[in-house]
Amino acid sequence: MKTRPPQRLARLIALALAWPLLAAAGPVDDAVADVQRDWEVIRYQTPAAERVKKFEVLSLKAHEVTLAHAGRSEPLVWEGIVLSSLAGEKGGLGALGLVKQAKGMYEQAIQIDGQALDGSAYGSLGVLYYKVPGWPIGFGDKARAEDLLRRALAISPQGIDANFFYGEFLVETKKEQEAVAYLERALAAPARPGRQVADAGRREEARALLARVKAN
Fold first, then answer.
1. 192 within some domain
2. Which DSSP letter does residue 157 get?
3. What is the distance between the alpha carbons of residues 140 and 146, in angstroms, rounded to a whole number?
4. Within a domain: residue 202?
5. Using one digit for the tens of pLDDT, what is the confidence trace for 98-153?
6. Alpha carbons 55 and 192: distance in angstroms, whole number
7. Enclosing domain of residue 50
8. Which of 28, 119, 202, 212 might form a disulfide with 155, Cβ 3.0–4.6 angstroms?
9. Number of separate domains in the chain
10. Is position 56 within any domain?
11. In this structure, what CATH number is given to the domain that contains residue 117?
């Protein structure tokens, strides 16, 4: 079975992976929102050359939030997002350890409450499964990815991230025409309060991918 070269890990978005809409304010929500805002600034407004160092610092902060709110799924999701984003910036074989840690975070979050943050744990884990190389290098698995991404869509059918990542998955698996509807749905997704930076960045990614699909 042919696997992707380790360098492809640089395309991890978990980059991406951030579609959470936070619930009512509270200690855990405030702490998670703080990590979320920092992630958005680094991901979408920070020069590429500075992102690794900033994500490393943010990963420590995210871990402190997880420890301070043991038993909650939201901090685990966001620590996973930060770790997978750091892996994407680093790339190479060294990133595999980070994505494995992120995978564990998402799995723990699902065990606690997979519905939290609009099903972000399912979607974020699905992204890892389709972007990480398969055996013998990594744990990538397209069938597993699709199952997880569909679970995220079932929870957040109109969500910008759930639709974008399923559309991207379809493009990656050579189903470009099927991807169009999901990418267009991502572009039409309702704005998320307090998520202007992330929404703008995700829409730009959706537009670029949609243009690429339509040009083929």
1. no
2. T
3. 11
4. no
5. 999 999 999 999 999 999 999 999 999 999 999 999 988 899 999 999 999 999 99
6. 23
7. 6-154
8. 119
9. 1
10. yes
11. 1.25.40
